[in-house]
Each structure stands twice: as C-alpha cells, then as structure tokens.
C-alpha cells in the first residue's frame, strides 16, 4: 500500500480532509490513518518533527503494510535557484548532522550505513511530472539534507551546499529513507520551499509554511492519478 507522510498537521491536513473510508489507527505518539484518496488505498500520517519521529513513524507504516513511502512537506531552500514556493523532489537523502569524523568517517555517515539513500526512480519521475503541473513553481531535483536543526544562517546554507551538495534542508527525509532502505521499500521526498534557510528563515517559515505546504500536497495529488 502507498504511504503518505508529513511531519506537521499543515503538511497533511488538506489530504486528510479528502480521505474516504477513513480508519484511525492508534500507535503511541503517532496519528496514522488508513483510507482511500482519489480512488487509491493509502496510509496517511503526521509523524511529528525530527528524525526520531520520522524513523518511528516509518517503522509503523511498514508494519501496516506500506510498500511505497511518499514524504510531503516544507523545507528550507539551499540550492541557489530555489525561491519560496518552489519544489524539491529528492534524488537522495543525507543526514547532515551526523558527525563521526573523529573516527575517520565522512561527515554525514553513520558507521556501517550508506552515506546517502537514493530515492526510487519511478516515484521520483511521477513526482517530477506532477510537480511540473503546479503552476508558477520551479522544480529542482536534488539532494535532501536532514538534521535535527532548523537552519537559519548563511553559514549553515554554505555548509550544506559545500559539504553535501544539498538542494534543501529539512528534518525528517533521511530518517524515512534510512528505514525504507533497510526494508527495501521505495521512497521519495517532496518538499516545497517555505524559506531559504538563511537569516530571516524563521520569519519566512512562519509566514509562508501553511501556504506553500499546499504545493507539496498538489504534487502528491498529481502523483496519485498516475500511480
Ligand atoms: N523546514 C522548513 N525550513 C527549514 C529550515 N530552514 N531548516 C530545517 N528544516 C526546515
């Protein structure tokens, strides 16, 4: 079954409002629903903010039979072409806040794990096609950098560009990716840009987040038609 996941209410509420035959599943700390969206059976969840919540929720989704995972939400744009409202479709995900460099590992690498996790080509293609159908937005395919940090500085943006070649910064994608990779389950992350992760990102985020979350939701909706 297709699973659709967001971190915050604003990222899934528009989809939840249209979920048919809705069944609410109770897992500790997570809101998870089963139902039908545009004729497609789905699991839909708001997993909470950060990598731990994302990993936990992904595990619950897999236990409920998720065979594909689409993450939808907002991010800080890091790629220089990105403006508020634009869309990033993940090529792969990294954990930018993992640092075991003192033991000789590359920045972002969890010892024994892959340095990044690649998104599924078919889900990526479906997301890009759907994203191009959203009026007035620029679509960037690129690396999603995840960490338990809200990035709000020029130096933070420069580090994510230089050390990781990131397109955007957010707080969940790589955790979803890591869990999906362990289970062999395809995933893609779709993020609309709420801020550009530099000075003032906190102000832009508060102003634009609810509005631009709609763009990512439009992409998911567009994907459903083609899945
Ligand atoms: N989500 C939206 N904007 C973000 C930022 N600047 N840093 C991390 N996560 C975000």
From TrEMBL:
<dbReference type="InterPro" id="IPR000845">
    <property type="entry name" value="Nucleoside_phosphorylase_d"/>
</dbReference>
<keyword id="KW-0486">Methionine biosynthesis</keyword>
<dbReference type="GO" id="GO:0008782">
    <property type="term" value="F:adenosylhomocysteine nucleosidase activity"/>
</dbReference>
<dbReference type="InterPro" id="IPR035994">
    <property type="entry name" value="Nucleoside_phosphorylase_sf"/>
</dbReference>
<dbReference type="GO" id="GO:0009164">
    <property type="term" value="P:nucleoside catabolic process"/>
</dbReference>
<dbReference type="InterPro" id="IPR010049">
    <property type="entry name" value="MTA_SAH_Nsdase"/>
</dbReference>
<dbReference type="GO" id="GO:0005829">
    <property type="term" value="C:cytosol"/>
</dbReference>
<protein>
    <recommendedName>
        <fullName>adenosylhomocysteine nucleosidase</fullName>
        <ecNumber>3.2.2.9</ecNumber>
    </recommendedName>
</protein>
<keyword id="KW-0378">Hydrolase</keyword>
<keyword id="KW-0326">Glycosidase</keyword>
<dbReference type="GO" id="GO:0019284">
    <property type="term" value="P:L-methionine salvage from S-adenosylmethionine"/>
</dbReference>
<dbReference type="GO" id="GO:0019509">
    <property type="term" value="P:L-methionine salvage from methylthioadenosine"/>
</dbReference>
<comment type="pathway">
    <text>Amino-acid biosynthesis; L-methionine biosynthesis via salvage pathway; S-methyl-5-thio-alpha-D-ribose 1-phosphate from S-methyl-5'-thioadenosine (hydrolase route): step 1/2.</text>
</comment>
<dbReference type="GO" id="GO:0008930">
    <property type="term" value="F:methylthioadenosine nucleosidase activity"/>
</dbReference>
<dbReference type="Pfam" id="PF01048">
    <property type="entry name" value="PNP_UDP_1"/>
</dbReference>
<feature type="domain" description="Nucleoside phosphorylase">
    <location>
        <begin position="2"/>
        <end position="224"/>
    </location>
</feature>
<keyword id="KW-0028">Amino-acid biosynthesis</keyword>
């Amino acid at each position: 079954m297709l699973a659709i996941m967001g971190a915050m209410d604003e990222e899934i509420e528009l989809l939840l409002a249209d979920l048919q035959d809705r069944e609410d599943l109770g897992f500790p700390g997570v809101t998870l629903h089963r139902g039908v969206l545009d004729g497609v059976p789905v699991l839909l969840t708001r997993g909470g903010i950060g990598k731990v919540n994302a990993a936990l929720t992904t595990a619950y989704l897999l236990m409920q039979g998720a065979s594909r995972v689409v993450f939808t939400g907002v991010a800080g744009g890091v790629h220089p072409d990105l403006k508020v409202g634009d869309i990033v479709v993940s090529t792969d995900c990294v954990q930018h806040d993992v640092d075991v460099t003192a033991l000789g590992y590359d920045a972002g690498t969890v010892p024994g794990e892959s340095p990044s996790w690649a998104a599924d080509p078919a889900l990526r293609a479906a997301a890009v096609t759907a994203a191009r159908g959203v009026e007035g937005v620029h679509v960037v395919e690129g690396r999603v950098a995840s960490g338990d940090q809200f990035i709000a500085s020029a130096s933070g943006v420069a580090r994510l560009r230089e050390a990781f070649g990131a397109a955007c910064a957010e707080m969940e994608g790589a955790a979803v990716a890591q869990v999906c990779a362990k289970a062999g389950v395809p995933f893609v992350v779709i993020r609309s840009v709420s801020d550009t992760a530099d000075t003032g990102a906190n102000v832009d985020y508060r102003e634009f987040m609810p509005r631009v979350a709609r763009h990512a939701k439009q992409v998911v909706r567009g994907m459903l038609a083609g899945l």
